[in-house]
Amino acid sequence: MIDNLLLGFSVALHWDQLLFMLLGTLGGMWVGVIPGLGPITAMALLIPFTFTMDPLSALLMLASISAAANCSGSFTSILLNVPGESTAAATCFDGYPMSRQGRARVAIGLSIGASLFGALAGMLAVIALTQPLLALAKAFSPAEYFALAVLGLSVVAVLSREAPVQGIIMAALGLCLSFVGVDSVVGEVRFAFGVLELQSGIGLVPVTVGLFAVSEIIGWIVTRERVSQVGELTGSVMQGVVDTFRYPVALVRSTLLGIGIGITPGVGAVAASFLAYAVEKRASRTPERFGQGAPEGVIAPEAANNSAVCASLVPALTLGIPGGATSALLLVALTIHGLRPGTMLFTSQPDLIWGFFAGLMIGALMFAAMGLLMTNLFAKVTLVRAEILAPVFLVVSFAGVYAQEQRLFDVFLAVGFGIFGYLARRFGYPVVPLVIGLVLGTLAETSFHQGLTIAGGDVGSMLLRPGTAGLLGAALLLVAWTVWGALRDRRA
Amino acid sequence: MDRARWPGLAFGAFLLLILGHVAATGLRARGISGLFPAVVGGFGALLALLNLTQLALGRAPAPEGDAPRGAEAAWALGLSVGVPTLYALLLWLLGFWVASGAVLLALPWVLGYRRPFVILAIGAATLVLSDLVFVEVFDMRLPLGLVGEALRESWQAE
Questions:
Q1: For the stretch A236-251, what's the b/e string if a residue is b when 16 or more beta carbons lie within 10 angstroms of its beta carbon?
Q2: Which of A22, A251, A266, B151 is deepest in the core (most CB within 10 A)?
């Protein structure tokens, strides 16, 4: 493995590869901070330009965009409570309260440190464990995917411990939103109310921009407060980076969780970040700090989503099964260059594949260096008056929502979800469970029906498969653990 | 009943209505297509009803918003709900450039910010950057609106 890595570094450390990675990192960082304009748009746009490039440069540039956008999406989560990427939604919980306390630079430092660790450890683990992990991933059937979705949904219990009934209601609503559009089981259109745009379903971008960005902007208009309530910035970004390593258990646990979820196609980094946050909150001896600016609340989702994005490359490059949209686009780029994912890729093109892995590690370091340089500038946004910030972000958010599908209907959806999100928060309903329900709804329903068909309609034999039962047991344990903790707190 | 609970009750009833509708539609659907919606909607509606009953009986704490109260609250809430809605309608009618220009110039003023040159500079910078990012770099079309499209068509016809 060491020889392969050395080969990879010798290929990736060429000036031309470094230049393409730098371009990809800068571009990714830029699209990552604009809500709605994600790495998928940027990668899809750049794919035609990669026709004439050598395959490694093309892959490294595209992967750098994905990695940098994934990391920088958390900057706006921390500074403005507006996730630049859906994967950064869980970072809002504790990142934004830190900004409100004037500790935006520390929070970004924590995010950079955890992202860097997650990405590097994720890549190393992927390199070391590719073969055994592949065997595990291959053993997953629809029944296990259904159980995995249930495990993801059980996170709601942990995240809404203070208002569990309201949390479950919102999760059910999120699941219901995932039913809108063409039914994945029989192909019928459901809950579209005759609206053509609803037949393709409700996208994650208008929902997240509405629930997080628009409802936050509404909040700014109402209160007219700066993000930083203390009116100044305290702490430094380096302090945040150093603090990341004061929580080694949270860092390692979340990274491992991200890798586990990343290698499982179809689940994705969004679920990984929420699950990691929930596990850390539940495992903490002082869970009441979560949501108030706890450093682990930033470290856990960031380490998990970055390691999940790296790990999603395993099924993409070896089985040709994309773990998410960005790895699907990487597969497209591979195919354009006449390469086929699979074991042959590892044996016939070792310089390409190991150069790619080494390049991703260099790209993570490059992003961290750039993040450190630019944090002071970014953090100043928390000192800008709400009267100025609200219109600017309203315009940028709406342009981002429109740009993704080029339809105004999504803008109206974002407005609707913004108003709904604002009212929900006012009346004590947490909005994050709704996003979790929407993300996992299709996976849960489709895999349940597929699993049931495979099991010949016998629910018992479907749910009692060892993998399925284990994952469902873990979900049950997570809920029981939370209920027990809540009861214990009430007695105390 | 305490009048402060009414908005919370109305919101809870709205959730119950949505979840109940999903459950009913799921039950009416043919075959397995309605199974998941019926189960999820039914379970959600049951919890929403429980929650609503608790709130109506005063067993659940009345929700406390962070918004100001009184006449100022009505103005602020109207503004906060009205601004995004009006902006979206203006996007549809007048297009991105005119609607965004109007929001960027008028909203800070309405919110009490009184430095016209700063407003003008930030508004112009936001529009220029939007053009650079979305139109020039990503080659995307931002909405021209009904009026913009009509004008474009008439120019093309000439």
A1: bbeebbebbeebeebb
A2: A251
